């Protein structure tokens, strides 16, 4: 993730087995090892927040929104940020 660029292949890989997209790997049906891999990938994404009265921006890790885990699908990941709930979107395999 140099200079704010995110490599998408590791995210896509979570939802694929070899060359095949596992369309039913969504929400709680995502295998536990894949869900843990996704958690790690999400935590590595920095979220920058500027305080109105503060002198500089602060960096926070994103987290999967565990209360919305059933919404997870390839390219649609509910996340928690310091500013509230959000969704991480990216181009999926199709």
Describe the overall structure:
This protein is 19% helix and 30% strand. It is α+β, with helices and mostly antiparallel strands and 94 residues long. The protein has one domain (2-89). The chain has a three-stranded antiparallel β-sheet with strand order 5-6-7, covered by helices on one side. The longest helix is centred in the middle third of the chain and has 12 residues, at 32-43. The model has no long low-confidence stretch (mean pLDDT 87).
Secondary-structure blueprint of this entry?
Layout: H1 9-14, E1 16-17, E2 20-21, H2 32-43, E3 46-50, E4 57-61, E5 63-64, E6 76-81, E7 84-89
Antiparallel strand pairs: 1-2, 3-4, 5-6, 6-7
Give a nutshell description of this structure.
This protein has two helices and seven strands. The protein has a three-stranded antiparallel sheet with strand order 5-6-7, with helices on one face. A two-stranded antiparallel ribbon has the order 1-2. A two-stranded antiparallel ribbon has the order 3-4.
Global outline: elongated
Helical run tally: 2
> How many separate domains?
1
Please give the share of residues in helix. 10-25%
Order of helices and strands: HEEHEEEEE
- What integer is the average pLDDT? 87
Q: In what order do the strands lie side by side in the largest sheet?
A: 5-6-7
Category by helix and strand content: alpha+beta
Q: Over all CA atoms, what is the radius of gyration?
A: 14 Å
Number of strands: 7
Instruction: Provide the β-strand percentage band.
Output: 25-35%
Low-confidence stretches: none
| Oligomeric state of shown chains | single chain
Q: What's the story with the biggest beta sheet?
A: 3 strands, antiparallel
The termini sit apart by 23 Å
């Amino acid at each position: 993730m140099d200079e704010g660029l995110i490599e998408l292949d590791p995210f896509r890989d979570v939802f694929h087995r070899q060359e095949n997209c596992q369309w039913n790997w969504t929400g709680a049906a995502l295998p536990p090892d894949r869900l843990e891999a996704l958690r790690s990938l999400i935590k590595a994404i920095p979220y920058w927040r500027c305080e109105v009265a503060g002198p500089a921006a602060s960096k926070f890790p994103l987290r999967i929104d565990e209360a919305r885990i059933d919404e997870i699908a390839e390219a649609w990941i509910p996340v928690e940020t310091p500013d509230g709930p959000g969704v991480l979107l990216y181009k999926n395999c199709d």
